[in-house]
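Reviewers of the previous submission asked for a worked example of the structure-prediction workflow described in the proposal, so we include one complete record here. The input consisted solely of the amino acid sequence. No template or homolog information was supplied to the procedure at any stage.
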Amino acid sequence: MSSLDATLIRRTLAAKPTAQLDDLELFGSIASTNTYLLAQPAPEAGHFRVAIADHQTSGRGRHFRRWVSPPGAGLCLSLAYTFEEHPDELPSLTLAIGVGIIAALKNLGIEGISLKWPNDIVALDGKMGGILTEVQSGVSGGVTIVTGIGLNVDLSGSTEIGMESEWAQRAVDINSIVAAVPRREVIAAGVINTLHGVMRKFAALGFVGFAEDWAGYDWLRGREITVELPDRQVSGTAVGVNPGGALLVDTGNEQIPVVSGSITLKAS
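From that input alone, the workflow returned the following structure tokens.
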């Protein structure tokens, strides 16, 4: 049984998300909230379902990296949403979701957060969370996206902190950047409210509706980086993203768009 209060989460949700929420499930422990939702029936178009856990035993990040958060120390939330039509520039949805998470946290008075392309949530130059977006297969008509959000809320006293990363040397939590940490239920409701709006806005506008905000939160911009691609390395300066959400690396001779790759920072 989860220590989270489902009634409080539901009571904190706005009217529109509440009307289109098919199911909200809470777990004390689960292998992965994303894996769970991927195995559930897809919501009908315009609707969504949510799974939240106190603890994940097999939490996942990009490239099958592990995401470990001690029980009760973070927020492990996944949301499955069905688009009526396949959105253009779907790979950039993760970036739009990042913008939405920052908006949700700002609404709770949590400031000083950035985004590292494509899916990391950054505070104090450390990793505070991550996003994993996956497409649910076997859906007839439209497309169902399952997005998992991992946020470090309060790691005080925690000894098991998993953070497989090439760029971040430490984990950071919300407790490190605010005087009073909101309840996890309030954070969860805020994230759900905002992500519901992100999905609707992305369906209508695509990434262009989020590009300006993303640029303002871009933690990599101006940094010297190396990107490991399957067949080569690309080194240069990160100079933002293109309209499709690909990272732009300025090598001095050209700007190379990177769709996927592992990033390391140039040693200072």
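The longest helix spans residues 184-205. We consider this example representative of the routine output the project will generate in years two and three.
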